[in-house]
Write a structure and sequence with these properties.
This protein has 422 residues and is α+β, with helices and mostly antiparallel strands. Helices cover 38% and strands 21% of the residues. α2 (23-41) crosses α11 (315-321) and α5 packs parallel to α9 (237-252). The structure holds adenosine-5'-triphosphate (ATP) and magnesium ion (MG).
């Protein structure tokens, strides 16, 4: 029997590392996404939706080696023989879209996106194989202005969620190309001395992309990192002044930060500011939002030299941190006791919905059964319409929490409900 057949016979479960989002968890996530959309809109970001898969080359370009592209992607050949990759992140697709849509002529361009990302990694709390990111990308703001604006959008977003006090902003500078070259050399010299103590992954990184070692989660690597040369000591004068301007502006704006000299990005197109918002409440999954400047990316994808800076946040992780009540809104339920009453209840329900009252009709069964359903639906009020009521153009309005009941004329119902729920 083929493995494809076997897996189709397995129990109805989602694929490992994926899950169905519903109920309260889905409501939390939708709320997080809406807040990011609103925060970014205030800064002039346009929403963009790119496809869920791209040509593999969008994520993997010659000479690059990152954990994402080497280990974490879902890459496959389609029936036409093209190598495609489910997007593991949003930045490269948005940069690709900037080029595809000829928008490099009308800069700056500011984008917001929200959607699922796919990475083949070890699933645990706050780490999934399909997860949702919201993100912001700003193209064409070359100086520190872009870095400040993206951080301000992140601040606005986290404030809205009521999470700003729970997370800390860490940042570092990766400098310009010359800084990176100087630093790479120092790092290679240092780690070559300890290469036998490095993890296998990091020994590989030492040859492919030594900067990526700074990102290692391996205990042994982390110990060696304590004495490794720091990026900051390799910054050029220009790069340092860029960073100072960022820090000074953050201070002027009253934005709290911590300079973390170990914070880096492994890909070559990252430069200058790199930042992360970290929570202590999610263990190893503590980073809820990460961003930085990536001036080389658009060129790397075949476009002109256009600067870029942005961030992406993990919606699943933020939703886990979110406090507050995310129960569904309590509905009004209508209980039409008979065919004629049913017809009428459609009309009444529409009148209520027209004033934004959540309204459901409970069909069938005796009144006791239906009232049980009403309680289960967490309804606050039941409108019972029997044959006698229908004849008198009225409903029995039962306020379920209080157990009170009174007759209200159909044409007064909407106002009555508005009154008791406001
Ligand atoms: P981590 O160090 O936790 O693996 P990362 O550096 O891979 O994170 P980024 O690529 O910077 O993460 O993605 C931005 C944000 O997306 C992360 O800060 C995190 O909140 C979220 N994120 C990344 N990978 C996952 C995942 N597998 N499941 C859920 N959220 C994720
Ligand atoms: Mg990761």
């Amino acid at each position: 029997m083929s493995s494809a057949l076997k897996s189709s016979e397995s129990k109805a479960q989602p694929v490992r590392g994926t899950r169905d989002l519903l109920g309260e968890e889905k409501r939390r996530q939708s709320y997080v996404t809406a807040q990011a959309q609103q925060a970014s809109a205030l800064f002039g970001c346009e929403e963009i939706e790119t496809p869920l898969f791209e040509e593999t080359g969008v994520f993997y370009r010659l000479g690059e080696s990152s954990d994402i592209v080497t280990k974490e992607t879902y890459t496959f050949e389609d029936r036409g023989g093209s190598s495609l990759t489910l997007r593991p992140e949003g930045t490269a697709p948005v940069a690709r879209a900037l080029i595809s849509n000829g928008l490099t002529q009308t800069l700056p361009a500011k984008f917001f996106y929200a959607g699922p990302m796919f990475r083949y990694e070890r699933p645990q709390k706050g780490r999934y194989r399909q997860f949702t990111q919201v993100g912001v990308e700003i193209f064409g703001l070359n100086s520190y202005h872009g870095d400040i604006e993206t951080i301000q959008i992140a601040e606005n977003f986290l404030e809205r969620l009521g999470l700003r006090a729970q997370v800390s902003l860490e940042l570092n500078s990766l400098g310009d190309a010359a800084s990176r070259e100087a630093y790479r050399e120092k790092l290679v010299t240092y780690f070559t001395r300890y290469q036998n103590d490095l993890s296998e992954d990091s020994r590989h990184r030492l040859k492919q992309n030594p900067l990526r070692i700074l990102d290692s989660k391996d205990e042994g690597d982390r110990k060696l990192l304590k004495d490794a040369p720091l990026y900051g000591d390799s910054l050029t004068v220009e790069a340092r002044s860029f960073f100072d301007q960022v820090l000074k502006t953050l201070e002027n704006l009253g934005i709290q930060y911590r300079h973390n000299p170990y914070l880096v990005r492994g890909l070559d197109y990252y430069c200058h500011t790199a930042f992360e918002y970290v929570s202590t409440d999610l263990g190893a999954q503590g980073t809820v939002l990460a961003g930085g400047r990536y001036d080389g990316l658009v060129k790397n994808l075949g476009g002109p030299e256009v600067s870029g800076v942005g961030w992406a946040a993990g919606v699943d992780r933020l939703a886990l941190l979110l406090k507050g009540d995310f129960t569904a809104p309590r509905p009004v339920v209508i209980l039409p006791m008979g065919d004629a009453a049913e017809a009428k209840s459609f009309e009444i329900a529409n009148l209520l919905r027209a004033q934004n009252t959540v309204t459901e009709i409970l069909y069938g069964g005796n009144i006791g059964k239906r009232l049980k359903k009403a309680t289960k639906a967490n309804a606050h009020t039941a409108l019972i319409i029997g044959d006698d009521d229908l004849a008198q153009n009225q409903a029995q309005v039962r306020i379920l929490d209080r157990g009170t009941e009174e007759a209200v004329a159909f044409d007064k119902l909407a106002a009555y409900i508005k009154d008791i729920t406001s």
